[in-house]
């Protein structure tokens, strides 16, 4: 277990790792220190981990950015970032993004278990995961615009991929909140379940993902993740190449 001294911890149990936001007293509001810790988790994962579950303690997944930190004059605050040269500010934000983008790793499948609020950075953290299981009380919002900001934690492309440009623009430019039912209709949720069933649903989903050959699942994730950037012919070639690797591996002829 990686301790949650900065408000987030990593627990590993065989092939399943769990990232837990553990600041329930402030609805798991996020800080730059948490993002750096989450980025470090990628290096801490044992090689046998296949699934990463991201969850929040208490009644919310994450209420977003901790405004008490962002509004201060300390490291990671708006005031501090605004004083940096443009490239240095952009580089600092790139470090923050690393706390989210490692969940795209090709060798793992990431699952967000979302209850209560997933606002701003909380919504972007859920979007960073491959799959999202929402409790019926979930409320999601890309609320950065209400602070005069833009979503900058790698959530915009994933949102467009899931709901399309026009809907993503409406969601981001209004900052409005969506309930679990609407999130499900828009394709943001993999599954919606009653709150009391959230943990069990995530366990069942995880078991289903673990039931099949790891290398096949890794190849499938790569095929699907790259499909949008390929032509039909390129995707078909990628399928052929992936299947050839699988056949050779299963026959004991892989390199």
Concise description?
By secondary structure, the chain is an alpha/beta fold. The protein has helices spanning about 30-45, 65-70, 80-85, 85-100, 120-130, 155-165, 165-175, 180-185, 200-210, 215-225, 230-250, and strands spanning about 10-15, 15-20, 50-55, 110-115, 115-120, 130-135, 140, 180, 190-195. The protein is about 45% helix and about 15% strand.
Characterize the structure shown:
It is built from eleven helices and nine strands. The protein has 255 residues and is of the alpha/beta class. A six-stranded mixed beta sheet has the order 1-2-3-4-6-9, sandwiched between helices. The chain has a three-stranded mixed beta sheet with strand order 5-7-8. The relative contact order is 0.11.
How are the SSEs ordered, and which strands pair?
Blueprint: E1 8-13, E2 16-21, H1 32-44, E3 51-56, H2 67-70, H3 78-83, H4 86-101, E4 109-114, E5 117-119, H5 121-128, E6 131-135, E7 139-141, H6 155-163, H7 165-174, E8 178-179, H8 180-186, E9 191-193, H9 198-210, H10 214-226, H11 232-250
Helix pairs in contact: 1-4, 5-6, 6-7, 10-11
Strand content of the residues, in percent? 15-25%
Uncertain segments are: none
Topology as a string of helices (H) and strands (E):
EEHEHHHEEHEEHHEHEHHH
Estimated radius of gyration = 19 Å
Average residue pLDDT: 95
Strand order of the largest sheet: 1-2-3-4-6-9
- Annotation field: number of helices: 11
Overall, the morphology is globular
The profile of the biggest β sheet is: 6 strands, mixed
């Amino acid at each position: 277990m990686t301790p949650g001294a900065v408000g987030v911890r990593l627990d590993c149990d065989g092939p399943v790792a769990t990232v837990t936001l553990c600041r329930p007293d402030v609805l798991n509001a996020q800080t730059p220190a948490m993002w750096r810790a989450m980025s470090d988790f990628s290096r801490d994962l044992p090689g046998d981990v296949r699934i990463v579950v991201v969850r929040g303690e208490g009644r919310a997944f994450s209420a977003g950015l901790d405004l008490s930190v962002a509004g201060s004059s300390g490291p990671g605050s708006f005031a501090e970032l605004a004083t940096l040269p443009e490239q240095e500010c952009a580089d600092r934000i790139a470090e923050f993004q690393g706390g989210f983008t490692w969940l795209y790793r090709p060798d793992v499948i990431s699952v967000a278990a979302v209850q209560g609020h997933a606002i701003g950075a909380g919504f972007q953290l859920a979007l960073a995961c491959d799959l999202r299981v929402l409790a019926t009380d979930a409320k999601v919002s890309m609320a950065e615009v209400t602070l005069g900001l833009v979503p900058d934690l790698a959530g915009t492309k994933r949102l467009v991929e899931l709901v399309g440009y026009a809907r993503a623009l409406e969601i981001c430019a209004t900052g409005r909140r969506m309930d679990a039912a609407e999130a499900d209709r828009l394709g943001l949720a993999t599954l919606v379940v009653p709150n009391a069933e959230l943990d069990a649903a995530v366990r069942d989903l995880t078991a289903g993902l673990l039931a099949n050959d790891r290398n096949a699942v890794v190849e499938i994730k790569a095929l699907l993740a790259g499909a949008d950037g390929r032509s039909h012919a390129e995707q078909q070639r990628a399928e052929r190449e992936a299947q050839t690797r699988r056949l050779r591996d299963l026959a004991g002829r892989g390199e």
